[in-house]
Amino acid sequence: MSNIIPFRGRAAASPVAFMAAHQQAVAAVAGAGPLDAVRPLVRDDVRKTVILLDLALQHARELSDLVTEERARRIFDRHLAAIEYSLQIARERMDAF
């Protein structure tokens, strides 16, 4: 996924450094051009990311079948269900985007 806003590698140590980093980020966004020109690129990146996460979820579901302890499997499946729910929300928001 291409970054629209460059992120700092670590948190700024002082308020002055924070303000300088903030001004750099604002300048980067201002130089990005109209949002309408950037939006299709972001939409495509988000779509590809959701597809890859969906594939990762499918692999995790297959791994769930290998867990033999029942309690551990229920916990694993509960976490996978939460990820699946989040992916569904992402798909719905992507359609609205």
Folded structure, characterized:
With 97 residues, this protein is mainly alpha-helical. 75% of the residues lie in helices and 0% in strands. The longest helix has 30 residues, at 35-64. The protein starts with 14 loop residues before the first helix and ends with a helix. Keywords: Signal. Residues 1-27 form the signal peptide.
Number of domains: 2
State the distance separating the first and last CA atoms: 16 Å
Average of the residue pLDDT scores: 76
> What class, by secondary structure content?
mainly alpha
Fill in the keyword field for this structure.
mainly alpha, 3 helices, disordered N terminus
List the helices and strands and how they pair.
Blueprint: H1 15-30, H2 35-64, H3 70-96
Helix pairs in contact: 2-3
Keywords: Signal
Signal peptide: 1-27
